[in-house]
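Hi everyone,

Forwarding the result from last night's run.
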Amino acid sequence: MFKEPSKQAQKAWISMMRASRSLLADIDQQLKRQGLPPLEWYDILWELERAGADTLRPQDLEQRTLLAQYQMSRVLGRMEAAGLITLAKMEQDKRGRTVTITAEGSRVRATMWECYGTFLRTRFDGALEPAQLSSLSDLMAQLRPDDRP
């Protein structure tokens, strides 16, 4: 039998989704105004930089970013065309590919971070106290199954 979620749960969900959409739209607008790629490119470049000398496969990036599988190949193709990443076929798996960041990709990621970091400082540090930021982070982690203790 269906049990209605509490009004508090409904209100929290709506608030979280509206805030998320608004924040993502705002940062994408700021990046666009500065002639920079969209935020999803930043996430991929960041994960590739974090991997260091290790190469990642597209499915690794899917797990580490917010992009779905159906989006990944299109985005990677655009990033490769822009010279930010290289895609290479794997020797042991001819259908598989690896993704690596280029020097230009690292430069673009650093430039994007200046815009992105300023956005975070303004929208989060400027709006919430450190204790509130910690609480928000802890609460959001509780909603993600992979972040639970």
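The beta strands are 85-89, 97-101.

Cheers,
N.
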